[in-house]
């Protein structure tokens, strides 16, 4: 076990407040001045099944959950069986003694105690919080305060129940895991919430999304905050509608974003190509889940990378970038909204379930977010598709005295349909110039995160796997250089040049090694090994650490 | 007042019903300008097909979108800036085949936009295949034995979907079409006009002329409108249904305008800082 990390895992059926218990645990740790990382594992169903929430905490920055938990609370038999192998050394396992007998662990009659209250199912989570409070030596008053705030329905019952459970485990494990108190409480947020906030900071006006895990929580977050931030947030009839609504809104100058996962993105590709042709600035959040097809709706994978890079028919610039940490999601979503407006082309922010839905303690400076501002037409007759040196035609929005035509056909400078070969060539060249202009811009920006290390091999990874890798290296005290390209198209090969001939190890979540091929073929890097996992689950830092250690030998 | 035209070369077939639609739209906009509407506020979208060429010929701003997606573009424009008057042009294939879901949902939502459906009952631009409004028996290049599908009734379909203004007009009667367009554009909510227009390589004007009828009176209720729409021949023109219902964008954000009332950067940053407090 990593000795500076404490991990709490709670498991039970959907509908028993498992995720909520995890979140409350995270708040307790954060209120003690700790960093946290929380992952919720849930199945694609509403009731029953097995859900669990795992929260790892430390007094340092932590970027992954650990599957070896120090305290495991199981609401039912299935949870006990599932997590029997997830116990760290000297772990405490709590089981529901009304559901089963067990020689190991500590039995607590959760069901029979919960039955005494009107909302039985909702009591389990409160029980888990009480068990955690007792084992970390949290005072009852502190626990009650938290329960009051976090479980506002039936406060008296909740507190009475929590007291009972707290006492039941007191003599067996009170204060078994005392946690040092830090001096600073930090905000806990998910990647999706920060994607939403980053876009708002950059000037977002409109968001469209058809519900699809793991992107739906962006829609929910923005819908709740729409009024406060003056946003139009809407759920249209399909992703085909979503992308075309977004293009319509962009036509008026509205900063517009959409969100989906692989299947929905597939439907959007027709509109993506339209955005490329009419030069509509639209930002798409593509939060990956395992495919193909429906795949594992509520789990994580990185297998839409090559699809995102080439999606949509025809030649046009697609800007693709992927945040490596939950914090980076904030700044990158703002930067991507800026870039799609700067270059008037669609952009894809590539993320996945792990980064989208996990939550962690963050420190963000919103003032550092980019602000989306297109190049505007100032004087003279307006030509929508004026051919300029950088390929970027100044914009103008209705209502206007000038006629502004965005045309899906090949078009002349005014946006009128043409099939003329010379104009066709010139327009292709004009649009393609934006690629070069974007590369010039990116060369002055941070496009790759490089953590310099000492080992004679580098680790290259991207997206949420970067967080897994950073955490994995702490275990086994490994210190290779870690390279994480933030931009995937254009791929910042100028930053990767130095690593070409070195031994590089790729870590990714795709069976065919999509990122490995990209790095090999586009950046010409020598790849020593490619570590892949594609079971829908994020890497566990300990097993990943051991694999990296093996490969580094 | 000829400035609603562009310099683009017109490539509709001589005698095409689309000419009269363009003329009527020009007439309607000029008439509405006299009533105080601003030219600059008009925005158009179109799909793909013969109908859509109107985008190049009308000197209005807008989006020449993809096949069937024009009403989504129109909805997106309206939601982002509700001050704009949005007219979306569609063909019968464009709006009732590939774009059917978008057409119906725009009506369901009562988006405050106007849809003009050019009904030539054929896929003209792609050389004469059957459309969602083609009568059974049509022998096109994809159906040499003749079609055996029943056509939609666009008028009753749109009433059922939730459109709050539903009319049929005829490109052979510019006066009727212009007047109907003016009413449709002035209507608050989703207005839908099916316009009968021959695509001359496939249908002759004579097929229409002798059969055109006019509604005696506009139905008073939803029920009566449905009955009338279903009973009337497909050549019956007039306003079948008009009612009032809440507008989508008003329901979404009331008397707000996401573009005009967009929050400043400073306000946004301040509010986000607040959200990020532990």
Q: What this model shows, in words?
A:
The complex is a heterodimer of chains A (553) and B (278). Chain A is of the alpha/beta class and 553 residues long. Chain A folds into four domains: 5-173, 3-Layer(aba) Sandwich (Pyruvate-ferredoxin Oxidoreductase, domain 3); 190-368, Thiamin diphosphate (ThDP)-binding fold, Pyr/PP domains (Rossmann fold); 375-444, no CATH class; 448-552, Rossmann fold (3-Layer(aba) Sandwich), CATH 3.40.50.920. In chain A, 39% of the residues lie in helices and 20% in strands. Chain A is built from 18 helices and 21 strands. In chain A, strand 10 (256-260), helix 10 (262-278) and strand 11 (283-288) form a beta-alpha-beta unit. The longest helix of chain A has 22 residues, at 421-442. Chain A starts with a strand and ends with a helix. The mean pLDDT of chain A is 96. Chain B is an alpha/beta fold and 278 residues long. Chain B has a single domain, classed as 3-Layer(aba) Sandwich (Rossmann fold), CATH 3.40.50. Chain B is 36% helix and 15% strand. Chain B is built from eleven helices and eight strands. Chain B has an eight-stranded mixed beta sheet, with helices on both faces. In chain B, strand 5 (165-170), helix 7 (174-186) and strand 6 (191-196) form a beta-alpha-beta unit. In chain B, helix 4 (92-98) packs across helix 5 (100-108). The N and C termini of chain B lie far apart (62 Å). The relative contact order of chain B is 0.14. The mean pLDDT of chain B is 97. Classes of the chains: A alpha/beta (553), B alpha/beta (278). Chains A and B meet through strand 7, helix 7, helix 8, strand 9 and helix 9 of A and strand 2, helix 3, helix 5, helix 10 and helix 11 of B. Strand 15 (405-407) of chain A pairs parallel with strand 2 (61-64) of chain B, so a sheet runs across the interface.
Provide the CATH superfamily of the largest domain in chain A.
Thiamin diphosphate (ThDP)-binding fold, Pyr/PP domains
Q: Give the CA-CA distance, first to last residue of chain A.
A: 22 Å
SSE-based structural type of chain A: alpha/beta
| Strands side by side in the biggest sheet of chain B | 2-1-3-4-6-5-8-7
CATH architecture of chain B: 3-Layer(aba) Sandwich
What is the CATH third-level topology name of chain B?
A: Rossmann fold
Largest interface: A-B, 67 and 55 residues
Q: What summary fits the major beta sheet of chain B? A: 8 strands, mixed
Number of helices of chain B: 11
Oligomer: heterodimer
Overall tally of structural domains of chain A: 4
Written as H for each helix and E for each strand, in order along the chain, the element string of chain B is HEHEHEHHEHEHEHEHEHH
């Amino acid at each position: 076990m990593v000795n500076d990390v404490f991990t709490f895992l709670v498991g039970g059926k959907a509908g028993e407040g498992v995720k909520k218990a995890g979140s409350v645990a995270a708040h307790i740790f954060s209120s003690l001045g700790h960093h946290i990382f929380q992952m919720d594992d849930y199945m694609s169903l509403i009731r029953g099944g097995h859900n669990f929430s795992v929260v790892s905490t430390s007094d340092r920055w932590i970027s992954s959950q650990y599957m070896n938990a120090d305290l495991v609370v199981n609401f039912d038999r299935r949870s006990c069986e599932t997590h029997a192998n997830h116990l760290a050394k000297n772990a405490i396992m709590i089981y529901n003694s009304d559901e089963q007998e067990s020689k190991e662990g500590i039995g607590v009659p959760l069901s029979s105690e919960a039955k005494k209250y009107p909302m039985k199912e909702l009591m389990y989570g409160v029980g888990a919080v009480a068990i955690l409070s007792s084992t970390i030596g949290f005072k009852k008053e502190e626990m009650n305060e938290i329960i009051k705030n976090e479980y506002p329905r039936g406060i008296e019952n909740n507190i009475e129940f929590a007291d009972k459970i707290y006492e039941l485990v007191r003599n067996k494990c009170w204060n078994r895991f005392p946690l040092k108190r830090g001096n600073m409480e930090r905000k806990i947020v998910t990647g999706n919430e920060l994607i939403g906030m980053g876009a708002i900071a950059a000037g977002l006006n409109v968001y469209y999304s058809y519900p699809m895990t793991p992107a739906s929580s962006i829609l929910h977050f923005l819908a709740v905050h729409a009024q406060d931030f003056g946003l139009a947030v809407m759920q249209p009839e399909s992703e085909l509608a979503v992308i075309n609504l977004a293009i319509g809104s962009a036509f008026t100058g509205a900063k517009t974003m959409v969100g989906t996962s692989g299947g929905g993105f597939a439907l959007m590709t027709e509109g993506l190509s339209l955005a490329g042709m009419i030069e509509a600035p639209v930002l798409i959040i593509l939060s990956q889940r395992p495919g193909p097809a429906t795949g594992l709706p509520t789990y994580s994978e990185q297998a839409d990378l090559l699809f995102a890079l080439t999606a949509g028919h025809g030649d046009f610039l697609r800007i693709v970038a992927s945040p490596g940490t939950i914090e980076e999601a904030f700044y990158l979503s703002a930067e991507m909204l800026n870039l799609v407006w700067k270059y008037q082309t669609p952009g894809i922010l590539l993320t996945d379930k792990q980064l989208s839905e996990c939550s962690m303690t963050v420190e963000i400076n919103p003032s550092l977010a980019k602000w989306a501002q297109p190049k505007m037409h100032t004087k003279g007759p307006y030509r929508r598709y004026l051919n300029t040196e950088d390929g970027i035609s100044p914009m103008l929005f209705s209502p206007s005295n000038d006629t502004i035509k965005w045309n899906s056909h090949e078009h002349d400078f005014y946006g009128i349909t043409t099939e003329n070969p010379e104009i066709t060539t010139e327009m292709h060249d004009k649009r393609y110039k934006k690629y070069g202009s974007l590369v010039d811009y990116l060369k002055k920006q941070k496009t790759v995160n490089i953590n310099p290390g000492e080992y004679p091999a580098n680790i290259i990874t991207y997206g949420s796997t970067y967080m897994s890798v950073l955490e994995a290296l702490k275990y086994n005290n490994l210190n290779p250089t870690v390279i994480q390209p933030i931009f995937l198209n254009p791929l910042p090969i100028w930053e990767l040049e130095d690593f070409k001939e070195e031994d590089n190890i790729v870590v990714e979540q795709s069976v065919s090694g999509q990122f490995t091929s990209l790095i090999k073929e586009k950046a010409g890097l020598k790849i020593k090994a490619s570590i892949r996992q594609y079971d829908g689950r994020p890497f566990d830092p300990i097993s990943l650490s051991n694999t990296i250690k093996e490969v580094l030998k | 007042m000829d400035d609603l035209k562009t310099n683009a070369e017109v490539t509709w077939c001589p005698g095409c019903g689309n000419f009269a639609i363009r003329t009527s739209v020009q007439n309607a906009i000029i008439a509405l300008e006299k009533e105080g509407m601003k030219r600059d506020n008009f925005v158009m979208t179109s799909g793909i097909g013969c109908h859509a060429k109107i985008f190049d010929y009308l000197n209005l701003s807008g989006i020449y979108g993809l096949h069937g997606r024009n009403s989504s573009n129109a909805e997106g424009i309206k939601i982002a800036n509700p001050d704009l008057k949005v007219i979306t042009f569609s063909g019968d294939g464009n709006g009732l085949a590939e774009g059917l879901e978008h057409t119906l949902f725009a009506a369901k939502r009562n988006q405050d936009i106007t849809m003009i459906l050019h009904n030539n009952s054929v896929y003209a631009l792609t050389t004469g295949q059957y459309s969602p409004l083609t009568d059974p028996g049509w022998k096109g290049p994809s159906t040499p034995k003749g079609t055996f599908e029943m056509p939609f009734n666009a008028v009753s379909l749109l009433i059922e979907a939730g459109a709050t203004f539903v009319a049929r007009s005829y490109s052979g009667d510019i006066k009727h079409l212009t007047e109907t367009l003016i009413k449709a554009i002035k209507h608050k909510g989703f207005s839908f006009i099916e316009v009968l227009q021959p695509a001359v390589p496939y249908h002759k004007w004579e097929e229409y002329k002798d059969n055109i009828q006019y509604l005696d009176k506009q139905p008073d209720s939803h029920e009566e409108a449905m009955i009338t729409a279903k009973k009337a021949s497909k050549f019956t023109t007039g306003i079948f249904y008009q009612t009032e219902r809440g507008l989508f964008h008003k329901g979404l954000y009331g008397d707000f305008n996401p573009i005009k009332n967009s929050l400043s950067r400073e306000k946004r940053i301040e509010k986000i800082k607040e959200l990020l407090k532990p």
